[in-house]
Specification:
Length: 391
């Protein structure tokens, strides 16, 4: 089973031993970040630093000035890794070590974009903006994300790309100094808190036959028991219908599904137009269409008809893997099982061999391991041992 690991360019740039160390793990592929969101990352083996603070979402290569000239929405450049093209430098070193490099492109997730262009953000039913979550229904946002996908994916030497957040982002974020766990939100409440009520989305709900003012009131009313400690239904589709009523629930799902499919189709088409035949395009995905975040909700039949396959979150119990892999059974395309291998971040590298075998029995044909740059030495030793036995 082909295994790939995730890396940031700063894991490699300035460390002459990094590429060989990754190759020695037994992985064949590196999914290397070319466009990424803000983060604070530990670099436990780098000879020059131990922490990298990526202060905002940025591209890790020099963007094409002609593509972005005169446009209000354009990618930000990074300043925390030396060199003009840290992605290119890292990719070259990894390829020289015999590794197949694919680009890793984060799309609808940028707090700086929302801070500098507030009208691009998701707006919830209370009027609160989510600066980290661009509203993908807005034409200017969609055009920006599609062009970013094409440029960030088609880096020199890349054999493929993985598009993360290629769809709706919502309430859940892992924001700096997050303090939002005081009230437990079930799946359905998370969905309601992720609904966008910007001008474009309000019009969209109207197109689906629901008055947006009535929907706003319904969402707020449905969430009142949550704020008062009454909880909310956990089963998302049934819970949404229970909270909003079937007609309004169906309208929101129809609008958001239509928008997400349009963005996914346009982004993949743009990548294909910018890359040679055989360039692999995968989406980080969740088979529950109304989920939001890094692994966007998709409709399995649709996504495998558009892209070459999916990368699915498989860390956790057998039931977790069954839930995400099951809906893709018999549908073709790449099904890459993504496992966390950083123990301190909830990963389980010591059960990787067993968990990967279970994923394979459910139809997974590739592995992705998050994240070779963040993992400790013992975690990487466990990964290498597992991959040597998996073959």
């Amino acid at each position: 089973m082909k295994a790939g690991v995730f890396l940031y360019p700063w894991d490699v740039v300035g460390d002459p031993d990094a590429a060989a160390r990754i190759a020695d793990l037994g992985a064949r592929q590196v999914t290397l970040a070319s466009a990424y969101h803000s983060t604070r990352a530990l670099t436990p083996r780098h000879p020059a630093h131990r922490v990298v603070t990526a202060e905002h979402a940025a591209v890790l290569y020099p963007p094409d000035p002609d593509r972005w000239a005169g446009r209000a929405l354009a990618p930000y450049r990074q300043s925390w890794t030396p060199g003009d093209d840290p992605y290119g430098e890292a990719a070259e070193a990894l390829a020289a070590a015999g590794l197949e490099v694919h680009s890793w492109v984060v799309l609808a997730h940028s707090s700086r974009l929302g801070a500098e262009h507030p009208d691009t953000s998701v707006v919830n039913a209370y009027g609160d903006r989510y600066p980290w979550a661009p509203c993908i229904a807005r034409p200017a946002v969609r055009d920006y994300l599609v062009d970013l996908a094409a440029e960030a994916a088609a880096r020199p030497g890349a054999h493929g790309t993985e598009l993360e957040s290629c769809g709706w982002y919502g309430f859940a974020h892992l924001h700096a100094h997050d303090k939002v766990a005081g009230v437990g939100l079930g799946d359905a409440a998370q969905y309601l808190m992720s609904l966008c009520f910007c001008v474009v989305c309000r019009e969209g709900y109207g197109e689906e036959g629901v008055d947006p003012e009535t929907l706003t009131v319904a969402v707020r009313r449905a969430l009142e028991p949550v704020w008062s400690g009454g909880g909310s239904p956990e089963s998302c589709r049934d819970g949404i219908a229970k909270l909003l009523g079937p007609e309004q629930a169906d309208a929101t799902l129809a609008w958001r599904g239509r928008v997400a499919r349009t963005v996914q189709e346009a982004a993949v088409a743009a990548v294909r137009a910018a890359t040679p035949p055989g360039f692999q395009v995968l989406l980080h995905a969740d088979p529950v269409p109304y989920r939001t975040g890094a692994n966007v909700g998709v409709e399995p039949d649709h996504v495998v008809a558009v892209a070459d396959g999916v990368v699915l979150p498989c860390t956790g119990s057998d039931a977790v893997r069954e839930a995400v892999l099951g809906p893709f059974a018999g549908r073709g395309g790449v099904r890459a099982a993504n496992f966390g291998v950083v123990t301190g971040m909830g990963g389980s590298p010591r059960t990787l061999e067993r968990d990967a075998a279970h994923a394979a029995s459910l139809g997974a044909d590739q592995l992705r391991l998050y994240h070779a740059g963040l993992a400790s030495g013992p975690d990487l030793e466990a990964v290498a041992a597992a991959l040597s036995r998996l073959g």
